[in-house]
Task: structure prediction
Amino acid sequence: MIELQAIERRYRSDEVETTALAGIDLAIAEGEFVAIMGPSGCGKSTLLNTLGTIDRPTSGQYLFGGRDLAQLPESDLAQFRAASLGFVFQSFNLIDELTIEENVALGLAYRKDVSDRKARVAAAMDRIGIAHRARHFPHQLSGGQQQRAAIARAIVGDPKLILADEPTGNLDTANGEQVMNILTTLNDSGSTIVMVTHSPSHADMAKRRIDMLDGRIVASAMRAL
Amino acid sequence: MNGFALLSLYRSLTRHRVYAALNVGGLAIGIATIIVLGLYVRFETGFERWLPGHDKVYLVQTNVRAPDQPFSGRHHWTMGGLLEQLREDFPGIVGTRIEPVSASVMENGVAASEKLKRVDPSFFDIFALPMVAGTGRGALADPANLLVSRSIAERYFGTAEAVGQSMTVSIEGETRLLRIAGVFEDLPPSSELDFTMLSRLPDDVDSPWWRNWGSTSVQTFLRFAGPEDAARFESGTDAFVDKRALSAYGEQASKQIGINLLPIADMHLTPQGREPDSRRQTVTTLGIVGALTLLIAIVNYVNLATARAALRAREVAMRKVMGADRGALIRQFLGEAIGTAALAGLVGLALVELALPFVNAAGGLTLTLTYFGAQGVILPLALLALVIGVVAGAYPAFMLSRFPAASVLASAKAPGGGQAGTRLRQALVAAQFALAIAFMIGTGVLFAQVQHLRSADIGFDREGLLLIRSMSWAEDEAQRRAIVARMAAIPSVRSVALSDSVPGGSGTNNVDTFKKDGSPPLSMRRVAIGPEFFETYGARLLAGRFLGDEFASDDVTDREFEEPRNVVINTLLLRALGYKDPAEAIGQQVGRGAPPRTIVGVVNDMRFLSPREPIDPTYYTYYRDPRYGPLTLRFTGDPKATTDAAREAWISVAGELPFEAQTGVESLREQYAEDERAARLFAIGAGLAVLIGMVGLWGLASFNTARRVREIGIRKALGATRGDIVRLLVRQFLQPVVLANLIAWPLAWAAMRRWLAGFDDPIALSPLYFLGAGLLAALIAGLTVLGQSLRAARATPAWALRHD
Ligand SMILES: Nc1ncnc2c1ncn2[C@@H]1O[C@H](COP(=O)(O)OP(=O)(O)OP(=O)(O)O)[C@@H](O)[C@H]1O
Ligand SMILES: [Mg+2]
Result:
């Protein structure tokens, strides 16, 4: 489904040039659950953002379902994200001024082809188990609940690919486990997931593990079944 | 403020340059606006206050108490002999008359007209004019003496020491040699007295008008020890009028005419007769515009300052963690805010100095800025800066410094920027945009009305008219005929006409009031015209015929008032007489107790006087060879060429009289000048208010957008396009603008309806002004916010999400 070829991403500030991604080749098939690991600053988030098209590679090719995304104009990318991707962030990134229900609905806000939005929002919240908090504002919820709301927002549009950047990073062990269980369940029912994590045990729950160092992939292994 | 506070103020200004420039600039513009408009208001309300003891001096008004007549209301003028009668009936009363006369100074055979007024010898008991040289008091006892202003002395003698010199002065056509007894200081701009020379009013005026109640030939001023004395005098005036006006008005004359007192300081802004109270309204309006503009600027400033301070909650928390106590934080924030406000005040002063020349030009004013002393601007400005600084600094100083540091640092979002804060800021944006929209509507209507006055149908063709007012001073019949003949011979002149009434007024106003057997009195103007008057003005004949020599009975030169006359009436009189169709009136009498007045023609209404005064019902009578009144020329081509030719013709036959002429357009323009000036000043104030509103909106938008960077990132990650983001941000700011329209429209509608009611020929208050201003405001708001939104929308979401 996904093919990255020779992806590079360099940041240029006044004098220094940082290479966040130094030639990434990676293929991800439909239904995979990939965990990305590596030390801080090695380029994990950059890779995930590139996959999510919210950051553009400096060079290289990004094929998604055979389409070359690197060549698409920004407006097409926005459409692509709305239709095909779901994001989960370490810091939840819910909008303070909106209720949980409205935050989840935001996952459909930029889809033009969707009908019965209300029902789908309700279904997504049910599935993740936060329906009883629909009318609350983010700051009235615990971190775990907020992250579940964020996952509900990510899946409400039935994305082809879910991208999660340290989804358990701000959560305690129990809440972390819960989020991981949700992700595993989602994967079991067919969603493709790419997740960045610092926790080896969470990485073990994925089907495949990728290790990064200094902007390169240094190891890629399937979990033994 | 210690050195550290100054440093931190400097840092906070230089670190966010654009923000600081907008914030300080917006407040500075607001301060400059209130200073300029405040100077204007103080100028307009400060007339005659320069006069020593002005609070004891009162103007005597003639009060025509019969309603709905051309002369109804209080006038600043009285009959000439009033003071003499007052002296007889109120022994010990102190007063003087001021009579404007036509006067010219002859030098080397050329006449230059000057503003000479004749006054009573007691003049200096009331008006203690500051003298430059010689004596004022007592000098006027001698009719051969003359007092002149400093600039006259300097113009004619090259020095202020002109005392003892002689001048040849022609007063009302009589030439005499007068000796300068004293030189007084030029009158300040804030005076309506308007004279440069004074001479003695003769004791023995024998004109029948001099003691005619209701006539208005002089200004009479009285001096009282205090307001109680003035009130006591005023309460006795009805009895005085009943007694003195008995022969003219019959029993209970004071029911129809009276006299009142007006403090001299109120004279300038008080309307006369049926004039609307427009001057005072203008001053009040512009004062309010200034105050509101300052208010908008302050609101914006405080708004922006507190919004930004909220973003600094983290900084405050960190400072506290590192050991700053609350007192130090409060001092820092208050010091910063007061310092910034003071800086804005200084910039505002600089702006005032830069702007005054333009404002003076636009408003025909001579405003100047004084810094120190009782009238000085420094002290109030310092107080203002202090107040603004404290208000703007109070929130960060007291609120932020009280937040518990731990919770601020632990929380993901900035405190103080929550829903309540957003609502309040939106409401403030809406309020100031409402004012800006109301101002824009006002400006639109003002200019449309003024434009309308300039182009509206006033019943005659205003282009190509030359009014030779100095014709009124020519009294010799042969000379008058010679002047008319010379003028008519100018090649560009199509026709010439004499009349006692011309556009812009001629000083002559005749009103006849007829009533019979209990019929309601009917008042109308009587205008005396000579040959070709209607043709010269281009009046439209609606029925019957014009007056002329070919009809022997038209000429009324040798007829008494009571004898039969042929007259032409205007449509207003036609209506007042109850006729619908002009043709019906032909051959009828004016009636209602009028002496025989046969209507031979009906013409359209011509507006010679101010657009703020109603046109009166009028009838015209014909003189084959009028002996007084100005001359009107109808010409083609360049007005200047005709004016020059007319001057040459004048000098060749009447060189000893000054030549005074004006085109019809110029004369009418004087009537509109005050409204045009007010419109321009209003537009300046309104423009600045809008500008400050934009600055405030821009600042708030940038603050808001900064606060929403993360949200924008999320939305983009979820698939929002740039367009979606821009729409989202712009819509957020259009909401208050829509709300602002809802507030502004009724306000502006009520205010402008009231203002337009002051005109006899107002424009319709079309919805276009409202829609236009609303759209303009929306456009301004949209463009202001758009730039920011585009920038925010263009940022990559990865960057935005990293900036949490
Ligand atoms: N906007 C930017 N400008 C400059 N350099 C950047 C920017 N974003 C990331 N980098 C650099 O790129 C490199 C990779 O960053 P990235 O965020 O992908 O790391 P990471 O592996 O996610 O680290 P962490 O585990 O700490 O989240 C780092 O060296 C970082 O400093
Ligand atoms: Mg990261």
Summary: Residues 504 and 578 of chain B are 29 Å apart (CA to CA).
